[in-house]
Amino acid sequence: MSNQLISQVEAYSSKLYIHQGEDSKKIVLDINELFSHMINKVKVVNRRKYCQVLLHYCDLTQDWRYWGLWAEEEIRIGAGFDSPWLFYGFGRYLEEIGQLRESLKYHTDGIEYSISVGDETHLALNHIGAGTTLQRLEKHQKAEWHLQKAVEILSRLGNVYRQADALLNLGSLYDRMGKMNLSISKYQESMSLIYQIDHVFDRGRFLYSLGMAYVKASKLEEAEKTFNESKETSIINNNLHYLALTYFGISWLEYCKNNILQSRENIEEAITKFKKATESGLSVVNTSFAERQGLIFNLAGAAYSKNPDPNYEAALQYLQYAEAAYCNFDYPDKSVAEVLANKARTFKNSGNISQAIKAFIALLAEGKRLKSPLMIGDAAVHLVHIYYQKKSGVRDWFSLLNQLGFIGSICFLIRCNAQIISLLRKYKYLYKK
User: Fold this and answer.
1) pTM over cut 0.85
2) d(CA 194, CA 206)
3) Is 35 helix (H, G, I), strand (E, B) or coil?
């Protein structure tokens, strides 16, 4: 029975990258069902083979379920010549559940083992894994080296899909670094390869990433078109995970356009689809994508704290969910600080000024600790606005200036200038509409 399951998964997996639309949707659902049978039939004798034949599918769909537990046991027994693919897969699993330091360790070891046995494909994949983990750890220069190395190897091997994946992660790195033009360029380059090989199932991931970059670059019209295409292709292929993230992207776009009610509608769709993806098995069991869940809940908190018809209780509840999600992965400080920023705004919007001041002062201190000019500037702008609105006396202003310090004052001016530029861009977009 186990050999029959293995043969069936191998046959389906070989078709994952050559079929599209309804065909690829059916293939994914068939493997999902076979995965369930494997869970019920797993024994030590067939566990490693299950891991090997399912890795391709798990990596594509994010349906890891028991794969990580099986791989961990196989590595404990001794990975041997299977180390390149086992370490790559386990590193990917660890990255998705937020254990970034352990993920990096396995990808680094995977690189060494891949070199020793001459496995160039998994050498490149482990470079992608290391680069992806390092960018989330904000070690940008090292991440860039690994990802460029992966692009170089995969280009030489002619592995177009994985080359596109490496370029996508390079785009994500430049996105995190704030190099939006370079980020968009890499995303577009990766998209051209995906269209070149007519790969449809994973197209939602590439489109979602490009759409997010367009929003950050204030290219709202391009973002809207890209998200609509991402939603359409994710629905066709039943790619629930990236359908949820696409709804998140649309919600953020509407939030940036100050269409708050539409933002809420889309963020609720994102939460519903993410839950459905988890329940259907098409995502990690228990701790599912902590960073992405945190992003969704954080935006929900922000959307419910703004007019019209704000619901401050719901906003603070979502922000609690976001903080809890972020605390499930390594190095959550910056993300938790972003939740603190939204909590502070919620207190301010609800008229709870004393709590707002405390929260913004805490955010100011956290921004200085994390050396984040954006965070410092954000806290400074809000504090100045609050002190102005409540007609603070000279003594209070001197106290605030002392807390801001030189760095805080400079970040305040920079942030004010950035907000003016952002408003002008939005006005230009709305005028075109």
Assistant:
1) yes
2) 8
3) helix
Rounded-to-integer distance, Cα 394 and Cα 23, Å: 70
Measured CA to CA, the distance from residue 400 to residue 98 in angstroms comes to 37
For residue range 328-364, what is the model confidence (pLDDT) as tens digits? 777 778 899 999 999 999 999 999 999 999 999 999 9
Structure tokens at 250: 């649309």
Burial track 346-379 (b if 16+ CB lie within 10 A, e otherwise): bbbebeeeeebbebbbbbbebbbeeebebbbbbb
Amino acid letter, 298: N
Could you give the CA distance from residue 96 to residue 291 in angstroms, rounded to a whole number?
9
Q: Are 254 and 266 in contact (CB under 8 A)?
A: yes
Whose structure tokens read 């008229």? 351
Q: Say if residue 307 is exposed, middle or buried (CB neighbours under 10 Å; 0-12, 13-18, 19+).
A: exposed
* String of DSSP letters for 218-234: T-HHHHHHHHHHHHHHH
What is the spatial distance between Cα 87 and Cα 115, in angstroms, rounded to a whole number? Answer: 13
* R_g of the chain, CA atoms, integer Å: 23
